[in-house]
TrEMBL record:
<keyword id="KW-0472">Membrane</keyword>
<dbReference type="InterPro" id="IPR013098">
    <property type="entry name" value="Ig_I-set"/>
</dbReference>
<dbReference type="InterPro" id="IPR000998">
    <property type="entry name" value="MAM_dom"/>
</dbReference>
<dbReference type="InterPro" id="IPR051622">
    <property type="entry name" value="R-tyr_protein_phosphatases"/>
</dbReference>
<dbReference type="Pfam" id="PF00041">
    <property type="entry name" value="fn3"/>
</dbReference>
<dbReference type="GO" id="GO:0008013">
    <property type="term" value="F:beta-catenin binding"/>
</dbReference>
<keyword id="KW-0393">Immunoglobulin domain</keyword>
<keyword id="KW-0812">Transmembrane</keyword>
<feature type="transmembrane region" description="Helical">
    <location>
        <begin position="606"/>
        <end position="627"/>
    </location>
</feature>
<dbReference type="InterPro" id="IPR013783">
    <property type="entry name" value="Ig-like_fold"/>
</dbReference>
<feature type="domain" description="Ig-like">
    <location>
        <begin position="48"/>
        <end position="133"/>
    </location>
</feature>
<dbReference type="Pfam" id="PF23144">
    <property type="entry name" value="Fn3_PTPRU"/>
</dbReference>
<dbReference type="GO" id="GO:0004725">
    <property type="term" value="F:protein tyrosine phosphatase activity"/>
</dbReference>
<keyword id="KW-0378">Hydrolase</keyword>
<dbReference type="GO" id="GO:0034394">
    <property type="term" value="P:protein localization to cell surface"/>
</dbReference>
<feature type="domain" description="MAM">
    <location>
        <begin position="17"/>
        <end position="46"/>
    </location>
</feature>
<keyword id="KW-0677">Repeat</keyword>
Length: 742
């Protein structure tokens, strides 16, 4: 691609500088060729020449206009445009002839921004030549905008004090005007105030209202006011409430709650969007009980309820309206809650006193009567009994007492039976919860058959009497045992009446009665299963029944025979007895029969002697074991213990030793005499000191010879008299000694 300029005429009297510009494609290289250049000293009138084009400054967002003034004749077919150095060309917007030798062309740029800032020039082209102006700069200024939001210096219910904080900006200066723009965040209106100081106070604001505050800055030129800066969103303080609700109405009264109504609370009363409605109450009850509390209510609810109040109580109510800046209290209103069912009768106050056929029950009023007590209701039924014959499955019975009666006697009950009582109190609202207690009646003594006027004696001998025993009837508890009691008759003792007699509660055996002088003894104790029907029993048959010996009766003595039945459950025992027979003392001489008391003494003596012998044998074995363990001889060393040496025996053995030294010829004969003498002497000492007679000789035990070998470790002469034991003597030509084997 080649561009050829055959003729170029330049008019520039001062700086003849020529710049050639061409546009070529990017794929291939291009060349510019100049054929001829002529420099003239006068302007060429065949093409227009532009006057100097000045710079244009405009604020961002505004329209910019370049006006090019050219000298020459304007032709209809001439091309005219505004050329941007780095961008697209801009067509001419308007041309205007100033005179016959000069015209003006206008170029407009709409709403310029920083991206439009560049160098621009006017270009014209005609058939006779082209004209180009100088490059002029389009300067786009950014309107100022604060970087940071205003700062809050003070706040009140109706004002806000701020600092503009406009020293740091985005955009271009200079700043010729500062303004504060504010509005409610929930509103649509906006107000703007011009500010000529670093701080500003906004007045006449609404309490507890959120505001948005911005700062506006303005620079010279059209459109020099920048965008609002970052907002400061803040809220004014609440003001003190104007008053409390005028009307406080009680909508509903129940036993444990009160519903309260009042007028709706608007902003004009509360002076704050955040407020609390509190109902405070207090009351006094018996037993020095009082309570005071405050409850936060929902301000939007149409009705406010106070729960968990005590029934039948005067409650003082008042309402408190509170916001962060103050509070208003209403006057107190006294309301009595309604009655309710009473609380339970205190368990600790229930006390039951038991008898055989009745129970006395008393109680106290409920701790929480919750009104006026009108009556008490007691229902009871039997749940179990010690007597299997008593029916326990039956409908409960109910009795009622007046409000002032806190006790009752329940009659015609079964002995030994547990009854369950349920007691509850009542008000006009109904019965409260019941309190239960279990009470057991006392058991009764068994009922024995009537022996009055009936002879229960079947047979009688000198030492026995046979009676007819008839089973008793249980009453409240099963029969535990039957007992046969024998009472000895004394002429000086008052007779016991059978009908008003006291039974024998303490069981006494025959041996204890003889040693302690008791007037009676238990001859037998029979399990109830042994007497399902009438059966004979022989008193004095010399047998043992449940640990009680039934000895033969003394013929010369008289006896009363008693039959008693015993019922025992847990810690309660009842006994019923009756005299069934009397045995008179014999007047004729009876056959010789050993006295039971003497027979008993003989048995006791034999048992005592046997026990003594066993104890003696055990002690003897213990002594032998201790002695054997204490004295042990190791190898050639012999343990010798001196036990109470006798002065006379010792002197006697010294004399024998001296004789042995003088006459060694007949040693064996003399040692035989010495052994015999020592045996006799030690036997005497054993008798005196009561030593253990059980002993054996050391020689017999170990088969030692009567002589010992020469041993320097053996002492020359050692005499050890040991009483009650046989001694063996060993000696050599110069000495002898006695050794006792333990």
């Amino acid at each position: 691609c080649m561009l050829v300029l055959k003729s170029l005429i330049i008019y520039h009297p001062r700086c003849p500088k020529v710049i050639f510009e061409a546009e070529v494609s990017g794929g291939r290289s291009g060349y510019i060729a100049i054929d001829d250049i002529q420099v003239l000293s006068y302007p060429c009138d065949k093409s227009p020449h532009f006057l100097r084009l000045g710079d244009v400054e405009v604020n961002a967002g505004q329209n910019a206009t370049f006006q090019c003034i050219a000298t020459g004749r304007d032709a209809v077919h001439n091309k005219l445009w505004l050329q941007r150095r780095n961008g697209e060309d801009i067509p001419v917007a308007q041309t205007k002839n100033i005179n016959h030798r000069r015209f003006a062309a206008s170029f407009r740029l709409q709403e310029v921004t920083k991206t439009d800032q560049d160098l621009y020039r006017c270009v014209t082209q005609s058939e006779r030549g082209s004209g180009v102006s100088n490059f002029a700069q389009l300067i786009v200024r950014e309107p100022p905008r604060p970087i940071a939001p205003p700062q809050l210096l003070g706040v009140g219910p109706t004002y806000l004090l701020i600092q503009l904080n406009a020293n740091s900006i985005i955009g271009d200066g200079p700043i010729i005007l500062k303004e504060v723009e504010y509005r409610m965040t929930s509103g649509s209106w906006t107000e703007t105030h011009a500010v000529n100081a670093p701080t500003y106070k906004l007045w006449h604001l609404d309490p507890d209202t959120e505001y948005e505050i911005r700062v506006l800055l303005t620079r010279p030129g059209e459109g020099g006011t920048g965008l609002p800066g970052p907002p400061l969103i803040t809220r004014t303080k609440c003001a003190e409430p104007m008053r409390t609700p005028k009307t406080l109405k009680i909508a509903e009264i129940q036993a444990r709650r009160i519903a309260v109504d009042w007028e709706s609370l608007g902003y004009n009363i509360t002076r704050c969007h955040t407020f609390n409605v509190t109902i405070c109450y207090h009351y006094f009850r018996g037993h020095n009980e009082s309570k005071a509390d405050c409850l936060d209510m929902d301000p939007k609810a149409p009705q406010h309820v106070v729960n968990h109040l005590p029934p039948y109580t005067n409650v003082s109510l008042k309402m408190i309206l509170t916001n962060p800046e103050g509070r208003k209290e209403s006057e107190e209103t006294i309301i009595q809650t309604d009655e309710d069912v009473p609380g339970p009768v205190p368990v600790k106050s229930l006390q039951g006193t038991s008898f055989e056929n009745k129970i006395f029950l008393n109680w106290k009023e409920p701790l929480d009567p919750n009104g006026i007590i009108t009556q008490y209701e007691i229902s009871y039924s039997s749940i179990r009994s010690f007597d299997p014959a008593v029916p326990v499955a039956g409908p409960p019975q109910t009795v009622s007492n007046l409000w002032n009666s806190t006790h009752h006697v329940f009659m015609h009950l079964h002995p030994g039976t547990t009854y369950q009582f349920f007691i509850r109190a009542s008000t006009v609202k109904g019965f409260g919860p019941a309190t239960a207690i279990n009470v057991t009646t006392n058991i009764s003594a068994p009922t024995l058959p009537d022996y009055e006027g009936v002879d229960a004696s079947l047979n009688e001998t000198a030492t026995t009497i046979t009676v007819l025993l008839r089973p008793a009837q249980a009453k409240g508890a099963p029969i535990s045992a039957y007992q046969i009691v024998v009472e000895e008759l004394h002429p000086h003792r008052t007779k016991r009446e059978a009908g008003a007699m006291e039974c024998y509660q303490v069981p006494v055996t025959y041996q204890n009665a003889m040693s302690g002088g008791a007037p009676y003894y238990f001859a037998a104790e029979l399990p109830p299963g042994n007497l399902p029907e009438p059966a004979p029993f022989t008193v004095g048959d010399n047998r043992t029944y449940q640990g009680f010996w039934n000895p033969p009766l003394a013929p010369r003595k008289g006896y009363n025979i008693y039959f008693q039945a015993m019922s025992s459950v847990e810690k309660e025992t009842k006994t019923q007895c009756v005299r069934i027979a009397t045995k008179a003392a014999a007047t004729e001489e009876p056959e010789v029969i050993p006295d039971p008391a003497k027979q008993t003494d003989r048995v006791v003596k034999i048992a005592g002697i046997s026990a003594g012998i066993l104890v003696f044998i055990l002690l003897l074995l213990v002594v032998i074991l201790i002695v054997k363990k204490r004295y042990i001889c190791w190898r050639r060393h012999i343990c010798i213990r001196n036990i109470r040496r006798s002065y006379y025996s010792y002197s006697y053995y010294l004399k024998l030793a001296k004789k042995r030294k003088d006459a060694m010829g007949n040693t064996r004969q003399e040692m035989t005499h010495m052994v015999n003498a020592m045996d006799r002497s030690y036997a005497d000492q054993s008798t005196l000191h009561a030593e253990d007679p059980l002993s054996i000789t050391f020689m017999d035990q170990h088969n030692f010879s009567p002589r010992l070998p020469n041993d320097p470790l053996v002492p020359t002469a050692v005499l050890v008299p040991i009483t009650g034991r046989k001694n063996v003597y060993h000696g050599d030509n110069n000495s002898f000694f006695a050794i006792s084997y333990l």
